[in-house]
Amino acid sequence: MIKRIFFPLLAICFASCTKYLDKQPDNLLTDEMVWQTKTGAEGYLYNTYGHIYLHDGGDFATMGAADESSVSIGTTNVRQMVAGNWSPGAAYFNYWGNMYTGIRKTFVFENNIDKVPSHQMSDDLKTQYKSEVRFLRGYYYFYLLRQFGPFVIVTGEMSRNDNYDKYPRNSFEECAAHIAELMDAAAPGLPARWESAANNGRPTKGACLTIKAKVAQLAASELWNGNPAFAGFKNQDGKPLAPLNKDPERWRIAAEAAKAVIDLGAYKLFTNLDNGGTSFNPYESVRDVHTTAWNDEIIFGVVNWNRWGFTKCVSPAPGGYAMYCATQNLVDAFAMKNGRTISDPASDYQETGFAGAAQAESWGHRSGEWNMYANREPRFYAFINYNRRPVVPARTTDERNLYSSSGNQDGTGRVEFYYTGASGQRWAGSNNLTGYLVQKRVSATSSIYWDQVPHFAPFIFFRYAEIMLDYAEALNEYQPSNPDIVKYLNLVRERAGLPGIETVYPGAVGNKDEMRKHILRERQVELCFEGDRYWTLNRRLLAGKPENTAIYGMDVNADDGGQGFSFTGFYTRKLYQQRYWRDKMYLFPIAQNDMERARALVQNPGW
């Protein structure tokens, strides 16, 4: 069973990782004995899957590298990155070698699986497994393309005597085409959906189409669509590695690729009705898509994700580390429940003062909370933990009371992020430096104080809502009058409890520039803490904009003088972090030791 075998083997995977195009034979995993039994071959397959799990929750893209979040501990690699302490020698998050190790394993598997005796494994199952490793090879190449740009296309299992200095990088177009070819080769051997839940976590036809769509999106976006900064990006023989022409048709290709996933008909937006609810609840719908065991919105993900570490990092003290902090930048992006942005004079947003009455919906703000957090959209309350908001990962009244001082204890666990609060800087030794924590993916069945966190939920790499937004974004760039833009944007908004975009902002319909702003904001909110914000800012050349490098939070260091929740000084916007940016950071550098091992490689521009 995949979800019983998959994840215990991660330790084996990480222990066996080798360097990029390592010349040493992997004797343990290629021994002929492995291929004499179904168990041995499947063990190797699951080990090959293991390179996916570098990015589940604590990766730079999901936490700390984009303007939506910050990691509070200054010595972490992602904090070094955003401070500019970065070089090919430092090699932060150097997935180059790890992805190539995974790629090599796909070739080893494909070259040996037919050795398994037929009484041990059927031909049909061997064909399926070959399709799975072709998908994995394409997925690993996709990650290289997204993080490093053009890579070296390896077409077979390389010998230990090979001359690695003769392998230069392929062009972006060649890399994109190769990934598409691998996905086309994998898809026929995979189902549109698995009949048995035991196969959740394996790729499907939809996963193959999704990777093709993401590559097409990358090719259409400003980073790779005729970017003049890459004019000199060439191999040692002068071969250009980046497209030099800007072609708006690439957006049409990206839209069609995303629409192919939609037209497959295998996915739907999850709602609480799919989870036994009797009436639609937008808060439960956006919350539980990440906490159910599996659902029809998930295109590709990890089945039994061990989310203890993630929950520990996002939870307040006592018990939590308060390490993954949401930013004021993201808080400001959430709409009001009437669907309007907070900068809209018609939104009814109030920056200051305390709310005199609670929101009618049970999931909304409570009386006495700061007006900044009043009457916001359901996703805000599902994804963000703010001062005076009840704690989530605590199950009993006694546990919840640990998060409030004696005068504030009411059994709900109202979190105190102000200076002398139970989760504040003075008493808890909290790391929370913005006044906000991440609440997405946190289960109410957890008890972080006792380190009891259920592990049944998946970690989602790609889901249907993202594909719908991909389609709307690409369509808007080449055919802004197409009604599908409003249709698919609204489907995501409506699941989140918001009115249609044409109702609140009719002027955006058909207006490419205005609609783009709404689509990118929708991505920022719907897909927050899922890695998309980082990759979207990069591919659209927005990461270096001043509004995305100045990181704001509340004044967590202001002494409340014992006023507690009535202290208004806490709610002062503070520039928490001015991040370093240079345009070379749109691509990661290839590590210096990898450059020295394969001397045909050229370094990424600026590094």
Characterization of this structure:
By secondary structure, the chain is mainly alpha-helical. Helices cover 36% and strands 5% of the residues. The chain has 22 helices and eight strands. A two-stranded antiparallel ribbon has the order 1-3. A two-stranded antiparallel sheet has the order 2-6. Helix 9 (205-220) runs antiparallel to helix 10 (249-263) and helix 16 (464-478) runs antiparallel to helix 19 (512-526). The protein is globular and about 70 Å long. It starts with a helix and ends in a 10-residue tail after the last helix. Mean pLDDT is 93; it is low at 1-30.
- Summed over residues and divided by their number, the pLDDT gives a mean of 93
Number of strands: 8
- The whole-angstrom Rg is 24 Å
Per DSSP, what share of the residues sits in E-state strands of 2 or more residues?
5-15%
What percent of the residues sit in helical stretches (DSSP H or I)? 25-40%
String of helices and strands: HHHHEHHHHHHHEHEHHEHEEHHHHHHEEH
Keywords for this entry:
mainly alpha, 22 helices, two-stranded antiparallel sheet
Summarize the structure.
This protein has 607 residues and is mainly alpha-helical. It contains 22 helices and eight strands.
Topology of this protein?
Elements: H1 2-5, H2 10-16, H3 27-30, H4 38-49, E1 69-71, H5 77-82, H6 95-112, H7 123-148, H8 172-186, H9 205-220, H10 249-263, H11 282-288, E2 298-302, H12 308-314, E3 324-326, H13 328-331, H14 378-383, E4 384-386, H15 397-401, E5 436-438, E6 459-463, H16 464-478, H17 484-495, H18 501-504, H19 512-526, H20 532-539, H21 546-549, E7 550-553, E8 574-578, H22 592-597
Antiparallel strand pairs: 1-3, 2-6, 4-5, 7-8
Helix pairs in contact: 4-6, 6-7, 7-8, 7-9, 8-9, 9-10, 10-16, 16-17, 16-19
